[in-house]
Structure formats: C-alpha cells, structure tokens
Amino acid sequence: MTCVRFRFLADDRRQSETPRSQPTRLFSFSKGSLNKLTHPPQFQAATQLVVLCFATLPYKNPLLPSPFSIIIRTPPFVLIIITTPFLSLSLSPLMAHLAFSQLALTVPVGGDLSLRRSAFKASSINFQDKSWAPVITLDPKAKNFRLRSRQVVCMSVQQASVPKVNVSPLELEDATEPPLNLYKPKESYTATIVSVERLVGPKAPGETCHIVIDHGGNVPYWEGQSYGVIPPGENPKKPGAPHNVRLYSIASTRYGDFFDGKTASLCVRRAVYYDPETGKEDPSKNGVCSNFLCNSKPGDKIQITGPSGKIMLLPEDDPNATHIMIATGTGVAPYRGYLRRMFMESVPTYKFGGLAWLFLGVANTDSLLYDDEFTKYLKDYPDNFRYDIALSREQKNKNGGKMYVQDKIEEYSDEVFKLLDNGAHIYFCGLKGMMPGIQETLKRVAEERGENWEEKLSKLKKNKQWHVEVY
C-alpha cells in the first residue's frame, strides 16, 4: 500500500484578491503517472506545494484494495492524504483497475470556515486512456465557498468495489433450471486436458492437483455440480467393459478459469496405496482415475459425463444470504466455484452482498488448497468473507488434541447457531468420515444451548438450509 501525501500552505489574506475565473484542481492524474500538482496561475499566490512523499507497506498482493481519503485542513496548511493499493511508485499498472464512489463531506460545528458540498466538483482520473471518477476539485466560483480560519473539512472517498472480471457468454445466466446429465456413461463427451497443476507444497502428505478441462462450451454446468470421469482402460471386474464413472465436484464457476464458459476445473488428490506391512507403494492398488488425471498432460483426451447433482447448488434467490461452507481436503472444490462467483466475477444478475464463511480442514500449511485466492477475498471483502482453517498436524484444539474442522466450528459455535437460526445455509463437502465428528460436535453444542439437535437438524433440512455431499 502506498500513501501519497501533499501539503499546501494557504494564505487566506490573499484569497480574496485571487481571480475566480476557473476551478482549482487540487490534484490530477493522467496516463499512468501521478502528475505534479497543478494550479491555475492566478491561484499560485495563495497555495504552495510543500511535501510529496510515498510510504510503502509490505502487502503480498498488488491488487489489495484499500479506501483512500482526502483530508483538507486550513489554516495554516492544506494536507491531502491519498491511500492507494500500490507497491511501488509506478501507479499505472493498478490504478486502471480501481473504481471509487461514496463521497462524504463532514463540516465540524463551531468553526469559521464555510465550505459546503457544492464547493466540490468531481472530475475524472485518467490512466492509460481509461477514465475513473472521482478527482475532487475546489471551485472558488461556488457562492458558498469562503476561506477564513480554524475550520477543518474532512472528505472521504471509499473504494466501493474491488475490480471484477467480465465473463461470457452471459447466456449461461438465462437457464432457470440447472443442466443435468447431458452426457451419460454410454454416450460420454470427449474433452481435452488444458493443464495440470500441483496445488500443495512439498510437506503435504500426498499430492493434490488442479486440472483444467476444455469442454468447448458443450457441457455447461452450475456451481456446486459434478462431472463424471471415465478413465481409459478396461474394468478389471468386468472384462471388456470400460471403467466405472468417478464423480468429481467442479472447482470453478460456470464460466471456468478463463471466464469464457468453455472450461471446467477439478480438484483431485492422487490416491496412492501403501502396503501396511512393507510401507511401500503398491501401484496395482493405486486409484485408477485420480492417477490418470494427475498424470495427464495438456492435449490429452478425457471422457466426461454429467453434469450431475442439485444438493450443492448455490441458492441465489437472496444475494444477501449467509453461506457457511465446511470442507476437508478436496471437498473445498465447490466452494472455490461459489467464491469466485461471489467475489471475482462480474455477473450482472448476481451481486453478492451477504456473508460467506469457509471452514477448511487439512493436515498442514502445505496442504492448504487455493489459499492465495481465499486470502485475497478475505482482504478484499472483510465484511463479506470469513476464512478459518484447521491444521490437524500443526494446531491443537482446546483439549490439547489435534485440531480438526469440527473443533474449529466449535470455537465459533454460538455465531454459527445464531446464523443458522436466522436462515443461513450450511454446506459440508469432503470425505464421508468427516460427518460423524461434525454431527457429534453440533449435537453437543445444541444440548449445551438447551436445544434438541434432532429437531433442529430436521428443521434445517425442511428449510433447505442443510447441504451435504460426501464421498
């Protein structure tokens, strides 16, 4: 983050002598650079530039947003502070991505300076031939503009929205029902592998990959659905027959990672079998489909079916709803799609203004999946996103045992239960072994609150607030 400070000396005794033929621009930007402060010649006698300085803070992400403020104090000086999410003195790469609004003006009571809202005019900031508003100018011609002494005017321009990515084709928003089983096992679709990327660090137990598949726009889906994958080869249990279909939750929005509606992404953990006696890997018992996917190369062909599933669809009837998402490992896949739709993509028909709360349980820090994306949402949308992780091999729960996702939920149980009482949706995705521990924790918390868990669970299901997809 960069803080740009301008200081001016104002001599109000000369102010009345200054011709008022045109507005005075306090600061201006143009074509990717911060220009020297500009003044009409007739105003220079009253205002003088004293300080221009930059302060850099060590944020990782150069697109990390923040509000920027302008504070004007007179006399004896005018101080303007502009806070922008830049990591260097080169302003052009990032400013073109920012939009600002929500102008507010506060005039403290009891001072002698009268400077009301109409004395300000909004101009535009121009970066790389793109205009963004507002730049504030003082208009000395405004009849309620008078400079005397001892008054403070504070004006704040808050960043209204983090830049989002345009998506297409927007016709994907037109359907009123989700696409279901467009391709079946006997008539699968031949898609193409675009990329295979390892997601986890070297200390993660096992390997998890992010796999992008090109379906050419022919296998559309909604967030929360799954694709079926048929690995190549023969089913060992049914000689001459193909392998059975394996289902994988889709880890992207309907527009895919390239925002063009032609790809889908899968989050796949390679299934490797180790002999319990020798401790050595036995390739003959490794997961057929997961290893096929993780070993794939760009250009390889893949047989897919689907899309399938309705239980994990993201309800969009209320854009201000609360969504509590609980995942272990690759169960985070559908939530990545939800969150990209909420916070990354510019979808005209869906403007999320609610709360998304993600609980993710993995073994250790190196096992975190899509952590950079989630961390960025947390910084960009602190009022709309919460992100809590449970690292079973690095953290301890309140009893000194390993920290599992249900332990992390218990830490916030009061908040979680209140949100559910107010209509929040709660989702569970991951290995089926996660559910007994979670249900046990929720039941214990309910009893501590004097509630009957079975009745509460029944009500959540009846209200369609309870969504579970485990495997």
Automatic annotation (TrEMBL):
CC cofactor: FAD
InterPro entries in the cross-refs: FAD-bd_FR_type, Flavoprot_Pyr_Nucl_cyt_Rdtase, FNR, FNR_nucleotide-bd, FNR_plant_Cyanobacteria, OxRdtase_FAD/NAD-bd, Riboflavin_synthase-like_b-brl
Alphabetical list of PROSITE patterns matching this protein: FAD_FR
BP GO terms, sorted: photosynthesis
GO cellular component: chloroplast
Key word Iron-sulfur present: no
Superkingdom of origin: Eukaryota
Domain (FAD-binding FR-type) ranges: 186-314
Record GO terms (molecular function): ferredoxin-NADP+ reductase activity; poly(U) RNA binding
Compartmental location: Plastid, Chloroplast
Residues reported in the UniProt entry to bind NADP(+): 249, 269, 330, 392-393, 402, 430-431, 469
Catalytic activity: 2 reduced [2Fe-2S]-[ferredoxin] + NADP(+) + H(+) = 2 oxidized [2Fe-2S]-[ferredoxin] + NADPH
SUPFAM superfamilies with a match to the protein in the record: Ferredoxin reductase-like, C-terminal NADP-linked domain (SSF52343), Riboflavin synthase domain-like (SSF63380)
Similarity field: Belongs to the ferredoxin--NADP reductase type 1 family.
Protein name as it appears in the record: Ferredoxin--NADP reductase, chloroplastic
